[in-house]
Specification:
2 copies of one chain form a homodimer. By secondary structure, chain A is an alpha/beta fold. Chain A is built from 14 helices and 13 strands. In chain A, the strands form 3 sheets. The first copy, chain A, has a 7-stranded mixed β-sheet, with helices on both faces. In chain A, strands 9-10-13-12 form a 4-stranded antiparallel β-sheet. The radius of gyration of chain A is 21 Å and the shape is globular.
């Protein structure tokens, strides 16, 4: 007498979780230093000291009834004003506090947007590779997921395949750039082309097709690259953001939705998102953390470790003969299974105590995902095991 | 092209919110000290100092990657173990850490349980007066709300009306004791009788009918009264709890669901709750606050102010000739509209700058709700206005 789809979602242990538990058990047998866990996307750089300093300052200076009290559903005035002002400065566009709706992280931001737009028969387009929770989120809204297969050369968008899949029922295309799992950033050209297609298809079908931009890795970019502000390229864009990665506080659950004024029916969309959040018991995002992020809009993470890890792992594995997708952002790197079987590749790596997630669940079979938010020392220790893995596939070391 | 039911929920300003905004505007005209806002249920007693002390201690002693990092979906081990141990001690029953699922407060706890149990055709029974968000939560799950009219004498349960409304589709009866809005606690006799009926009906229909006990006011009790531990009376009980009221931190969004082992199909129910939470983007409850509550299970609120307010307001209004429901817990008191029209009563009070919420939205027309989590001084200042209100209805002062 329970709802079966939710029961299934509750008992299904994610492969990442199973790997994590295997790693813990294996560490007891072979020693913690001999298990190389590349499976988890938990920031490995601590929160900047300013986060704790701000908490201490708030405890000293703000009346506890206000500090820990209910805020309006969309967030307290100070926090919404601060975020809006920061977005104005960054993007050179006008964002008002009324465009911001604080949420308990990017995941409930995404599900609220999905619920708000899941009209009867709605189709949500996922661009592979995509974050593995999207299908579960979409399914529970009643919408149909439509998957565009991956561009396994450049990890941009296969526009021919996308065009074929847009119908009169298409409500949104989900963009996640910098991307989990590929680490690739969509180029401005890619986003312009995407915008052109959605504009044309929107006109053809007589309603806006939204881009829902899930961008928790927005500031985690390397090589002098930058993440585009998508509403400036395609106005019908809704942004979902999280402070989990930029401030290394994924457990504290603080993020927001931004529905800019340029977005079609922005007021109705915002209201429907607020209503969808309310329907699942959203009251407000954690009140103290709203103020912490509001007072730290200038903080940027120390990306040196992630960047160095990315370069080390990419360089070393490429030298061994693996085909790797060069990451430009986030903290993931994809490696192609030499024989195309990512599940077998992951299993073979596991036998060498290298833990990695096959990308089948991300819509990209044939590849596995390595998190680079790990310790540099672990990467160094893991290299002999990677060499054995390369040898087992008969790969030739590159000059 | 947005989902209409969510749009409606997003634009519908609650009457409480409208009153609050009216109060703010009116304060500018007549002065803040001349507006008597009894509409809002925000704790007026600050969080105990130990809350801030624990935050400071955690910032000093716990590695920030752990402190602010993802926890398992149901909560970190320390927090679940601590809560389970405390429940064992309080109830004399066996609660395991695996029975606890941390949530972002009681509201998402309730919606996750509702979603988990909203099988096709499900009916959820609400006992009036009930918390005004329940119908919105239930509706969004697809279940049908069935309302048992209020016992306006004692504010216990009208069992004759309840029995008539239990069908083969009844999945749950929601219990909220101490009650919002009545402030009344269900007696042990009431709960035993409820348990007997649900046991009998469950046998008749061949499936368990759950009590879902929403108990954020569990420790806010007066006159030496206590809240019963319902699973000891009726095993098929699921508990939703929040630290919002007990620790005066409603904005921080921390609470839990407890599915005790005695509850029928407890493992399947727990898994479905976890799945329903996952489907709407629950990743974990705020990680630092999990540890704060875990380390403060012995903390109790300073109830003196609430208790004194309750007695003052009850005594004074009763003396003026109003019929009041004597609160035994929580921080609300209901007053009957002398002519039975609670909307008109609320409007007439508003004209005297007394802000109070009609209980029509709580399933209890004819009454209005006064929050007693206000300042004692405001109550004193409001008494002349209450006298005018009493006079306007021709009420006779009692000896």
């Amino acid at each position: 007498m329970v709802v079966e789809k939710f029961h299934q979602m509750g008992v299904a242990k994610s492969r990442i979780r199973v790997l994590f538990e295997y790693g813990m058990a294996q560490a007891k047998i072979v020693g913690k230093e001999n298990v190389f866990d590349f499976s988890i996307g938990n920031p490995s750089v601590p929160a900047p000291a300013k986060v704790a300093d701000t908490v201490r300052e708030l405890l000293e200076t703000v009346d506890p009834i206000t500090l820990h009290g209910y805020t309006p559903a969309g967030g307290c005035a100070e926090a919404r004003e601060s975020i809006a002002a920061d977005l104005c400065k960054r993007t050179g566009t006008k964002i008002r506090p009324e465009n911001i709706f604080f949420t308990c992280g990017a995941a409930p931001a995404m599900t609220s947007v999905m619920n708000a737009l899941a009209v009867d028969g709605a189709e949500f387009v996922l661009l592979a590779p995509y974050f593995s929770e999207y299908p579960a989120y979409a399914k529970s809204t009643g919408a149909t997921c439509v998957v565009v297969p991956p561009d396994t050369e450049n990890f941009q968008i296969r526009f021919d395949e996308l065009e074929k899949r847009i119908t009169k029922n298409t409500q949104m295309v989900i963009v996640n750039s910098p991307n989990n799992p590929s680490g690739v950033i969509y180029s401005v050209e890619t986003l312009q082309k995407l915008g052109e297609i959605l504009t044309r298809k929107g006109e053809e079908f007589g309603h806006p097709i939204y881009i829902v931009s899930d961008e928790p890795y927005r500031e985690l970019v390397y090589d002098g690259l930058d993440s585009a502000y998508i509403p400036a390229i395609y106005p019908n864009t809704i942004i979902c953001y999280s402070y989990s990665k930029i401030l290394s506080m994924p457990g504290e659950r603080i993020g927001y939705v931004c529905v800019p004024d340029c977005c079609a029916d922005s007021e109705a969309v915002y209201a429907a998102i607020a209503g969808a959040a309310r329907a699942v018991g959203h009251v407000c995002a954690p009140s103290m953390w709203q103020l912490v992020v509001a007072r730290n809009t200038e903080l940027r993470p120390d990306l040196k470790t992630y960047d160095a890890n990315r370069i080390t792992l990419y360089t070393e594995l490429t030298k061994m003969g693996f085909r790797c997708v060069k990451p430009q952002g986030a903290f993931y790197m994809m490696v192609e299974a030499p024989d195309g079987d990512s599940m077998a590749f992951s299993d073979r790596a596991k036998a060498l105590n290298i833990l990695t997630v096959p990308c089948d669940g991300f819509g990209c079979p044939g590849f596995t995902r390595f998190s680079t938010c790990v310790s540099p020392a672990m990467i160094q220790r893991s290299l002999p095991a990677f060499r054995k893995l390369a040898e087992s596939y008969g790969l030739k070391a590159q000059a």
